């Protein structure tokens, strides 16, 4: 998301918040060092989203990986540039117990592959949390196999892979 916002010229116009329940995951994200071979598939995503022009498939932008991260295949490391790591505010957040720890309203909430681990009651509690903290016309993006069912489906309009707050 940071790379996409940077390429769109929007990175300095947004605030980014990154949370997880697991403090170890937060520390890894803050350092921005990942296993290269494990994450090599993300380079395909980079190519599809950053290098390719969605409006013209014949256009390929010459944007090197090194603009945003360094690859050390010998030591199996992919390191995100520190300039990108300074943008998000990282924090531990428990979706079940905590409210909005940042005290802001959001234009976009991305919660991918988390909801599937919660029972129906907890899912609705989290959908309420999101609804309370999304601005009018804000978007909620869930994982590919996740959806909003039950009473909260009336509070969001499904649009492809994301939901618009009504």
Report on the architecture of this protein.
This protein is an alpha+beta fold. It has two domains: about 20-90, no CATH class; about 95-165, Rossmann fold (3-Layer(aba) Sandwich). The protein has helices spanning about 1-5, 25-30, 40-50, 80-85, 120-135, and strands at about 15-20, 35, 50-55, 55-60, 70, 75-80, 90, 105-110, 135-140, 155-160, 160-165. The strands form four sheets. A four-stranded mixed β-sheet has the order 8-9-11-10. Strand 5 (about 70) and strand 6 (about 75-80) form a beta hairpin. It is globular, with a radius of gyration of 17 Å. The protein starts with a helix and ends with a strand. The mean pLDDT is about 95.
* CATH superfamily placement of the largest domain: Vaccinia Virus protein VP39
The radius of gyration is 17 Å
Q: Identify the CATH class of the largest domain.
A: Alpha Beta
> What distance lies between the first and last C-alpha atoms, to the nearest angstrom?
24 Å
Largest sheet: 4 strands, mixed
Poorly predicted sequence stretches spanning 5 or more consecutive residues: none
What is the total number of structural domains?
Answer: 2
Tally of DSSP helical segments: 5
Q: How would you write the strand order of the largest sheet?
A: 8-9-11-10
What is the beta-strand fraction?
25-35%
Helix-strand sequence: HEHEHEEEEHEEHEEE
The amount of helix comes to 25-40%
Number of strands: 11
CATH architecture of the largest domain: 3-Layer(aba) Sandwich
Structural class: alpha+beta
Describe the global form.
Answer: globular
């Amino acid at each position: 998301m940071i790379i996409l916002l940077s390429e769109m010229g929007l990175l300095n116009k947004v605030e980014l918040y990154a949370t997880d329940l697991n403090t170890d995951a937060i520390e890894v994200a803050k350092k921005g060092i990942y296993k290269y071979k494990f994450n090599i598939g993300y380079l395909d995503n980079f190519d599809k989203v950053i290098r390719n022009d969605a409006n013209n498939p014949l256009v390929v932008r010459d944007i090197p990986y090194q603009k945003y991260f360094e690859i050390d295949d010998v030591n199996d490391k992919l390191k995100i540039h520190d300039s990108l790591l300074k943008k998000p505010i990282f924090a531990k957040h428990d979706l079940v117990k905590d409210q909005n720890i940042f005290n802001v309203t959001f234009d976009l909430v991305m919660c991918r592959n988390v909801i599937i681990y919660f029972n129906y009651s907890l899912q609705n509690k989290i959908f309420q949390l999101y609804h309370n903290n999304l601005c009018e016309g804000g978007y909620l993006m869930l994982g590919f196999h996740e959806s909003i069912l039950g009473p909260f489906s009336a509070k969001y309009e499904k649009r492809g892979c994301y939901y618009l707050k009504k």
